[in-house]
Amino acid sequence: MAKIAFILLTHKDPEGIIAQAERLTSAGDFVSIHFDARASTADYALIREALATNPAVTFARKRRKCGWGEWSLVEATLQAVRAALEAFPQATHFYMLSGDCMPVKTAEFAHHFLDASDADYIECFDFFTSDWIKTGFKEERLSYRHWFNERTQRKLFYTSFEWQKRLGLTRKVPDDLQMMIGSQWWCLRRRTIEAVLEFCAARRDVVRFFRTTWIPDETFFQTIVPHLVPEREIRRRTLTFLMFTDYGMPVTFYNDHYDLLLAQDYLFARKISPDALELKDRLGVLWAQRGVSFNVSNEGRSLFSFLTGRGREGRRFAPRFWEREASLGRERTLMLVVSKKWHVAKRLVEQVRHRTDLPTLDYIFNEAGGLPDLGGIERTLDKRNRHRRALLRMMFDYYQSNRLVLCLDPAAIDLMLDFAADKCATRVLEIECDFSDDYLIGHARRVGLAGEHTPPEVLARLLPTIRNDLAHESEQMRDAGFPVFHRIRQAASPEENAAPLAAFLGIDLWLAQEIAATDYLFVD
Q1: What global pTM score does this model have?
Q2: CA dist 62 to 28, 59, 77, 92, 95, Å?
Q3: CA 75 to CA 200: how far, in whole Å?
Q4: What CA–CA distances, in Å, run from 136 to 132, 133, 150, 378?
Q5: Other residues' Cβ atoms within 10 Å of the Cβ of residue 135
Q6: What does the pLDDT look like over 159-205, one tens digit per residue?
Q7: 157 to each of 69, 70, 162, how far by Cα in Å?
Q8: What is the rounded CA–CA span in Å between residue 324 and residue 244?
Q9: Contact criterion met (CB below 8 Å) for 160 and 146
Q10: Which of 174, 286, 499, 519 has the lowest CB atom count within 10 Å?
Q11: The sheet that has 102-103: what strands, in order across it?
């Protein structure tokens, strides 16, 4: 009978991790956990303590600081795999999971499924000829070296890439490897895992190559496994059901997807919404049941394509099943920095970006650019505003963070009210600036109320109206009743601004004071 060692990569939700580990081991299987070193030490201690008496749970010996698209994700996986190999000699299969995954079959069904075929389950398609990559870099992932993270070190990432491109500093794929690509959610037999680790020890050149490959968790195992294992022993598919939108983001499942998920020809599914508590409970109970039969129709992807196509044609008869929940997520926090002087807000969030781990966005609803390739939703301001919540959900997922800082203009009160009405926690920080007559004249020209040759007497009549409009926008925000509303002022000292800034960002007072003391912050 198959015995599964689940390789669990996690970075949040300690209670969910504990519940998942206890659920999976209750059926006689094993769990090896890697908890991101960037995450809370207290959360990790809570997980270790809660699972300390469970002999079917082990932990990666060394925690890595993981970043999306980095080698660190592969290294974290290898750490957890090595721990599982050593701790669980009875394990016959090693199955990659994340904290967002849940079973959609029983443990009994999963064990019989794996026993029925002596094979590895891993997506592995030719890197250069397949259409697996939908958007963004393709050959560039391999032919250039990537030392920086595109999400957290965007400027360095693209500067490094452009210099390599200009200087022709390309590199070759190792001669004896056929580069493959596919989902990181695989299930491999014990002897395959042992062969992969032996290969890594013997072929340091290959490991070095992948260390500077962009998004190696989609190419490393996918290339090495078919290099080592006969084709007849590989099933080029994942056992985890997942779908992607046209924008390249994973589809999220909610409470009303229980029957659909059980009908898919998979053992697990991702990603399950953190808010889908009823779905999680039902799937958790399902895993331990025995004697359950499943009517597998496997229509999930075709139904997704059908309804997506109808939506593009304007024939959307009902809410699409993957979009019924339009919320940003109950567990997420959206922090809105609101300032009429855009350069002041940008300077503030630049300091936040450099001094904290908070991802930040500038005036993405007012200015083009500033966003990664999301498959098209980011291309026009009209699309961004029309699909505002979908866009921000993508950015939360893109940064793999539950907190996000966004700059808004005070005139965007409708956006603020919409976000405040969401299930997510919304915080608002107003930057109250001083406006000289010269600044207001420049503002009038920027928005088309005045030109270069507007007579001074016309400007003199216009300035009080503009000043009143700005005051009205500020009053609208203060009267909106936002549950968390803070204000910093240009006229206040850094010491005075530190307290509201610290409360808004959820950071230490000393760090907030350093940010507030940025000498050029309010300079026009």
Answers
A1: 0.69
A2: 26, 8, 11, 24, 20
A3: 11
A4: 12, 8, 12, 13
A5: 13
A6: 998 999 999 999 988 889 999 999 999 999 999 999 999 999 999 99
A7: 12, 12, 9
A8: 16
A9: yes
A10: 519
A11: 102-103, 268-269, 240-241
